[in-house]
Amino acid sequence: MSAIALNSTAYSYPSRSGLNRRARLTRSLVVLSLSIVLGAGFAMKAGAGDSLNPSKAPSFTTITVAPGDTLWSIALAASHGGDVRGMAEEIISVNSLLVPDVKAGQSLRIPS
């Protein structure tokens, strides 16, 4: 007859990362610093903190529509020989006009 001997010693599993406390702290600091650098890089690409090209606020001239004026005639006068259609679309956008009709006495903002 044969006897089977069972060894009842406890087996301890190694830690998953295999790193001691100092190594884990170093790894965390490296990951944190890389994320800060990447975040700053994306912010600069997006224009946050861009002091080299300060954006100029758009300027407008306010006019009062005279009798007989149309949006096209106002855009023609304001475009100074440029793109009349683009100026008309910009006037519509700036003034939040639902239809391109203007009335005498109406106040409009014209981009300068």
Using the CA coordinates, give the radius of gyration: 35 Å
CATH architecture identity of the largest domain = Roll
Mean pLDDT value? 83
| CATH homologous superfamily classification of the largest domain | LysM domain
Q: In the CATH scheme, what's the topology name of the largest domain?
A: Membrane-bound Lytic Murein Transglycosylase D, Chain A
**Low-confidence region ranges:** none
CATH class of the largest domain: Alpha Beta
* Content-based structural category: mainly alpha
Proportion of helical residues: 40-55%
Shape call: rod-shaped
* Count of individual helical segments: 3
- Major sheet details: 2 strands, antiparallel
Q: How many structural domains?
A: 2
Determine the N-to-C terminus distance. Answer: 107 Å
Tell me the fraction of residues in β-strands, as a range: 5-15%
Biggest β-sheet: strands ordered side by side in the sheet: 1-2
Count of distinct strands: 2
Order of helices and strands: HEHHE
